[in-house]
Amino acid sequence: MKTHQGEAVMTARATARPLPLQKFEDDLVATMWLGLDEGAEAIDSGHLIAALTHHINGGGSRIRARLAHHCALQLMIEEPDALRLAALCELLHSASLIHDDLSDHAQIRREVPSVNHAFGEDTALCLGDLFISAAYAMAARLERADLPLAALLQLIHRAITLTIHGQLSASLSSSKPKLEHSIAAACAKTAPLFSLALELPLLVAGERKAQPLARRACEHFALAYQLLDDLDDYDDDMALDPERGNGNLVRSFERELPGSAKEHATTLLHQCLGQASAEADLLPHGIGGGLKSAVQQLAATALHRTHQSAYA
Question: Whole domain around residue 256: which residue ranges?
Answer without folding.
Answer: 177-312
